[in-house]
Amino acid sequence: MLEVFGVHGLTVQAENVLKEVAELIISRKEFSPLSSGIVIAGFGDKEICPSLYSFQTDGKIYDRLIVNDHVKYDVGRDRSAAICPFVQREMVAAFMEGLTHVTITFLLMHY
């Protein structure tokens, strides 16, 4: 830690607390609101039905992504289709309800 904090250094107690916080950040299941996602979908060489993998990322530590294996779908005999929303909740609501909540609020307030 000398290269980070210089000659002032850290107490052993403070260093242990920082290590514990780092472990909690790495091992947490809930990601921050600033997390992002990666979705990979398609057919394999020997597949007749598509598969989908979704990963959630929330930054990186020492040039390695913090990744959570989020969702896996295989379409086939047991599952004939899948609808997987990978957008902001507002967009899913707009699709399901036909309008965004902002539009609905505006209409209710003015009409």
Q: What can you tell me about this protein's structure?
A:
The protein has 111 residues and is an alpha+beta fold. The chain has three domains: 1-30, no CATH class; 31-80, no CATH class; 85-111, no CATH class. It has four helices and three strands; from the N terminus they run ααβββαα. It has helices spanning 2-5, 12-27, 89-97, 101-110; strands at residues 36-42, 51-61, 64-74. A three-stranded antiparallel beta sheet has the order 1-2-3, with no helix packed on it. Strand 1 (36-42) and strand 2 form a beta hairpin. The protein is flat, with a radius of gyration of 22 Å. 0% of the residues are buried.
What's this entry about, in short?
This protein has 111 residues and is an alpha+beta fold. It has helices spanning 2-5, 12-27, 89-97, 101-110, and strands at residues 36-42, 51-61, 64-74. It has 3 domains: 1-30, no CATH class; 31-80, no CATH class; 85-111, no CATH class.
